[in-house]
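Hey,
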Amino acid sequence: MRKKGPLCRKTNLKIKKSSPSELASFDPNAFVGDAEYPQDLCDFVLCLALAYNDFHDATLARLFLNTIPEPRRDFPSTQLGQYAALWISVIRTEVGFVHELLKVVETSAKVIASPSFSRIFKLLSKEGKLALSSLHDVAMGKESNDKLAKVLIRIRNKISFHYDPQELATGYKSAFSKKGVFDAPFISRGDSLEGTRFYFADAAAEAYLKLRVRPEDNDAVDFLWGGGDLLWKVNVALNEIVTRFIQARSGYRRFEP
């Protein structure tokens, strides 16, 4: 639980009030390989489609959390603990998605270098091309001065998502090294799933993240505790790749029940 300072900066992204998008379908063979679009390319784009959905949901989670009134912070409470824990859970989930996306980009280097993928890449917007290039460079271990790339490098090299006992223990020791009322390990012992939470584990995970990100590393700090704007750029690229790929292979048809 935190006493001072905002838990996370409010995002600049907004939940748009609009009518639902028109439902469309396409030929399922769009993801079945042929001589022009090999199966490994189809499989790679399918992975990117799932990554898009995952990042999409994480961004929505940030947006919805922005709409929840922040509990009072003058004294520890279950309400404050749950609120803070939800933010940390979203941040850790996003970090995990980044790790997985970088892994699939790294293992798909040959696919990305293929003429078939190059045709799709040429159809992307300038922003989409830059975001995808940053992902590729970081996945392949290249250095870059691009803001997005710097954040991705920091996440790839310094921030772990997995349940690593030693890393979590380090965070635990850091979280509870002081003696203030907010620095005690808290727990809710309920008789149901909803009534039980181990707040001390959330605090350990958050402290570990803080230890791995330098305060002066503004871009990384903004990614983790900011508005998620950089992650949105990644999703723009994923969106364009998937939609352009389906358009090239099948086209879309309006769904009519």
